[in-house]
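Per reviewer request, we include the raw input and output of the structure prediction for the construct analysed in the revised manuscript.
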Amino acid sequence: MMQTITNDKKEKYSSLLPIVRSLMEDENDDIAKMANLAALLHQEFGFWWTGFYRVQCDELVLGPFQGPLACTHIAYGNGVCGTAWQQQQTLVVPDVEKFPGHIACSSESRSEIVVPVWNNGHIVAVLDIDSRELGTFDEIDRLYLEEIVTYIYGPERDIWFAAGCFWGAQKFFKMVDGVTFTEVGFANGNSKNPSYKEVYTDTTGHAECVHIRYNPNVITLNELAELFFKIIDPLSLNKQGEDEGSRYRTGIYYSDNQDFKTLQAVFKEQESALGSKLMVELLPLQCFYTAEEYHQDYLDKNPNGYCHLSQEIFKLAKELRRRS
């Protein structure tokens, strides 16, 4: 039964993506975009409360919403909304009563998800959704809602690359023009919220992965995929450099089915050039869990830290940046 519910949710979100794109492309007013998006999500999923809080100076101010009356002002770092803004990440809360500092705008709210909305590298709003039921929201909601809110302020898209050890892969893609956000984590495994130590045992099914957000007006998915193939050995199974194990398998994972044809064409070009079957996965993203903070931007924090990528690879990224 749970698997059926999960599949139904994914199908519903997938079917909404082209509708959301259409709504956003034909409208220039940001408030109107938020209003229609709140209405669409509220109507399709029947959430208890669906809406936006906009960043105004040092607080969040109520924006377009669907549902009962709500709190008008939320301070930075307060409640789920203020904390998501402060931590700059999506928060999935199965039971709001157990969240420290929860702001009870309505006693009927039982679970909640808050998704930051980015514009030009800054959080300018949050999407807040509440449910009357416990445990309503999960990784599927997070992935799709993060994708959906990118359409409000621009064309930014998301893709996930498994390229061996994620430290070097993140550093490389951060240097590429058009990449606006990166984070490392674990993708497409069979355990929830795994730790790095758990993934390291190769028993979780997860791959070390880099989540990339990019502006397709600056760099295309095709170009990013071609760069991905320059930093991996696509004929090696579960091994990149000196790192070996299923957690180091290579793959490209997508959340928008429209990306599949683009990626499939790149894969065919690579296979033709190499004359061999690729040992690289091309799959829909099933799940992605952010790795611990000390793994984020690891090589920026530890310039002499281990990296399986050569200095020539990083010179390539620098050269591309100079040409742009």
